[in-house]
Amino acid sequence: MMDAAYFTRARELIGESMGGFAPELVLSLLVIVLLMHDLFTRGARPERAAAIAGIGLVICGALLWMQSTEPPTAGHLEGSHEIFGWLTGDGNHMGMLAIDAFAKFFKAFVLLGTLVTIPMCLVHPAFANRRMGEFYALLVAATLGMFLMASATNLLMVYMGIEFASMASYLAVAFVKRDRKGSEAGLKYVIYGSVASGIMIYGLSLIYGMTGSLHISDLANADVTGAQGSALAVAGVLAFAGFAYKMAAFPMHFWCPDVYEGSPVPFTAYLSVTSKAAGFAVFIRFMMGFGDGALTVGEGDGAYSVAFGWQGLVAGAAALSMTVGNLAALWQTNLKRLLAYSSIAHAGYLLMGVAAFSEGGGAEQYAPVLFYFVAYFFMNLGAFFVVTLVAARTGSEDIAGYRGLITRAPFLCVCLVFCLVSLLGIPPTMGFIGKLELFKLVIDRGLVWLAVVAGINTAVSAYYYFKIVKAMCLDAAEDEAPVRVHASSMALVGLLSLPILIFGILPGHLYEFTRQFGLF
Amino acid sequence: MPDIGLNAYMLVAAAIFSAGLGVVVARRNAIAVLCGLELILNGASLNFVALNRYTGPVARIDGQMFAVFIIILAAAEAAIALAILLNLYQMTNTVQIDEADSLKN
């Protein structure tokens, strides 16, 4: 077995794996360079650290763009391109990371989210005149963790990716020293997060016991007999805790409002978009690994099926997430907290789409969820960018501070209105098209009750989104002084809000584009 | 030495896990909560090691590897949690979680 050919093949595999790992390698190097930047720089040079981070991310993006999802040498990988695998008797399909279109979509999503966060950091007052290399290093490290989450095909890699992204995020939330709110938010985040991932790995250990393998494609082969069917259900629910925490979905959503309120606004924006996307990516891959979960146990008349009902669990979590998020949002007066509850509700809408997935559903079933993610990217980052800019000038994150914004900063106000209208989901915005497609998918798969719950929730959410719009456009401002922001910030806000309208009116091409990124 | 069997290991692991979860839910002292967290992680590690020994393929050590990674990540997580806690302690002079309440709805 261990002959020369074996080692030659093993060396080839490492070479191939490194090729597929190039974007992640760039990010790893970038973390080191950013840390070194702080060590060898006199005084605070936040702009230069931002420039280094930006250039590194663009290089990573270029490598990701050029990356082929085809296996480098045909035959041995059984159609899927997985890297860092090991040689097994039946060919090498047991990799750690998948290089496929699905992973590529989420990696590009996370990368763009990180790139938008950098200019937000530059205008954030608490970050002015400090050594920022360390913060950007944490930001890039979290991005690297999310890259691993997006393509993890092994339960160990799932756990590592989630922890990698989380640990960098814990520190970034508590980054501003002597800021009591930030430290409290960091403490809550680290405690909730570690407990959630601890519960998850206990669930994963039970799943490992039933499958004898850590590879996601083996989850469907769980060796379940008799009473172990209920053990599989328990393990699935425990594992879901960890994923729900990353998605900020019920029942692990408690951390979300406190962390969003306490952490620096740019990082809140980053977390609300990228962390959620990575959580969904890893969960969808994990859930689809189970297949439809209908395992027949026993023979003849005594046979019964121990379907582990992911659909029921996910649909329930979706309905509760949107209801809890929307109801709690009604009473919020702090805009960051309000957007936190709104993001919990959006995790619910997205989970609603995930609940409708089925094993034989084909690649098209992913398109509504992916399209909604693109919409969520623009509307949530756009809204948070305006919040960052206004908070930097007025020092207020309360809705009261936004009274009369239409006269103080007409452009920002109009952009924020677009984002909020899209978050609510009324035409002619991208949020409307996204929600429409999600509803279609859900009703198509027979989950009509879930669509009804989501419809009621959308109506409820109109109250708090329009509360902000009313304060901005109809109420008189207490302070008439115009909110001045740099032209480049305005341009970026415009660039984030414009697609909401464009793709709201002409969604066709983008929707077709998202179709090719389904999981096969 | 007689083999005590998989069930014994898994029962102990479940007991450790439950004890850890109980500590996390019941205690308000952040240090105690972190101790409870270690118990949760150790329950999972014990499960992985035992299941690898009894149910996994003979030539593979996936479960053992997982346990090693849990130990490493647990140490990293404790370091991060303590760093954040220390920073908070310097401002508030307390490690009680329910006194960290400046974030309110």
State Rg of chain B: 18 Å
What is the CATH fold-level name of chain B? Helix Hairpins
Number of helices in the DSSP assignment of chain A: 19
Strand content of chain B: under 5%
Q: In total, how many beta strands of chain A?
A: 4
Query: Averaging pLDDT over every residue of chain B, what do you get?
Result: 89
Tell me the number of strands of chain B: 0
How would you sum up this structure, described in words?
- The complex is a heterodimer of chains A (520) and B (105).
- Chain A has 520 residues and is mainly alpha-helical.
- Chain A contains 19 helices and 4 strands.
- In chain A, the strands form 2 sheets. Chain A has a two-stranded antiparallel sheet. Chain A has a two-stranded antiparallel ribbon with strand order 3-4.
- By secondary structure, chain B is mainly alpha-helical.
- Helices cover 73% and strands 0% of the residues of chain B.
- In chain B, helix 1 packs antiparallel against helix 2.
- Chain B starts with 5 loop residues before the first helix and ends in a 13-residue tail after the last helix.
- At the A-B interface, helix 6, helix 7 and helix 9 of A face helix 1, helix 2 and helix 3 of B.
Question: Gist?
Answer:
With 520 residues, chain A is mainly α. Chain A has helices at residues 4-20, 22-39, 46-66, 101-123, 133-151, 155-173, 180-211, 228-247, 255-262, 265-289, 310-329, 335-355, 367-394, 405-408, 410-424, 430-444, 448-473, 487-505, 508-515; strands at 82-83, 97-98, 296-297, 304-305. The model of chain B has no long low-confidence stretch (mean pLDDT 89).
Descriptors:
heterodimer; A: 520 residues; B: 105 residues; mainly alpha; Helix Hairpins; 3 helices; 73% helix; elongated
SSE inventory with pairings:
The complex is a heterodimer of chains A (520) and B (105).
Chain A: H1 4-20, H2 22-39, H3 46-66, E1 82-83, E2 97-98, H4 101-123, H5 133-151, H6 155-173, H7 180-211, H8 228-247, H9 255-262, H10 265-289, E3 296-297, E4 304-305, H11 310-329, H12 335-355, H13 367-394, H14 405-408, H15 410-424, H16 430-444, H17 448-473, H18 487-505, H19 508-515
Antiparallel strand pairs in A: 1-2, 3-4
Helix pairs in contact in A: 2-3, 2-5, 3-4, 3-5, 4-5, 4-10, 4-13, 5-6, 5-10, 6-7, 6-10, 7-8, 7-9, 8-10, 9-10, 9-12, 10-12, 10-13, 11-12, 11-17, 12-13, 12-16, 12-17, 13-15, 13-16, 13-18, 13-19, 15-17, 15-18, 16-17, 16-18
Chain B: H1 6-26, H2 30-54, H3 62-92
Helix pairs in contact in B: 1-2, 2-3
